[in-house]
Specification:
This protein is α+β, with helices and mostly antiparallel strands. It contains three helices and nine strands, in the order βαβββββββααβ. Helices cover 23% and strands 30% of the residues. The strands form three sheets. The protein has a five-stranded antiparallel β-sheet with strand order 2-3-4-7-8, with helices on both faces. It has a two-stranded parallel ribbon with strand order 1-9. A hairpin with a 2-residue loop joins β5 and β6. The chain is globular.
Length: 191
């Protein structure tokens, strides 16, 4: 089932999400719906706050990235993964800058500097614990989605001049004066 994606300005996008356990109601259905929603919107990741749930859950699928255009970007093998209750353990000091976008902030892109490598601990959809290191695009997408569960949007990581240049477009998104190919939710109370 396709879920509406919560737009820039929704309070749920600015909250630090809460941890969950295996007893969380209808979790498998939510995860399935998040995959459907992400693919429908042509995304490579989506976090639960983006669909109105302030919980520590995000999914990524970097196989969606066109490798031909990303030849100069360091990466591991493509990754498709559910992350629950994730914790960043380490970030490399080696940064790289890359243009990012976000399903909650359509039609706005900007260069964001992030660590080239990370070490992260998380639980999968069966609540089995994992710990691994990721680099390149995988690390970038994980960090972008991790920011969502911390209540941070990629626009907050843009340079000040870029932030000023996009302010009117952000205001248009916030007030629902945009068109997308997927359903969005504006002016709603977070769950």
């Amino acid at each position: 089932m396709l879920l509406p994606i919560y737009a820039y300005g929704q309070p749920v996008l600015k909250k630090v999400a809460t941890s969950i356990g295996p007893e969380y109601p209808d979790l498998q259905a939510l995860i399935s719906n998040m995959w459907d929603t992400m693919y429908h919107a042509d995304g490579v990741g989506i976090a639960a706050p983006q669909v109105g749930y302030s919980i520590r859950l995000f999914i990524i699928d970097t196989e969606q990235i066109d490798r031909k255009t990303e030849a100069d970007v360091p990466t591991d093998m493509p990754l498709k993964q559910v992350f629950i209750n994730a914790q960043i353990l380490e970030q490399s000091e080696q940064p790289f800058t890359y243009e990012e976008g976000c399903l909650s902030i359509p039609d706005i892109r900007g260069d964001v500097e992030r660590s080239e490598g990370i070490r992260i601990r998380w639980q999968d959809e069966k609540f089995e614990e994992h710990e691994a290191s990721f680099t390149g695009i995988n690390a970038r997408v994980i960090l972008h989605e991790y920011d969502h569960i911390e209540g941070i949007l990629f626009t907050e990581r843009l340079k000040p001049l870029k932030k000023r240049l996009i302010q009117r477009r952000l205001d248009a998104i916030k007030t629902g004066r945009i068109k997308t190919d997927y359903k969005m939710r504006f002016f709603s109370t977070p769950r």
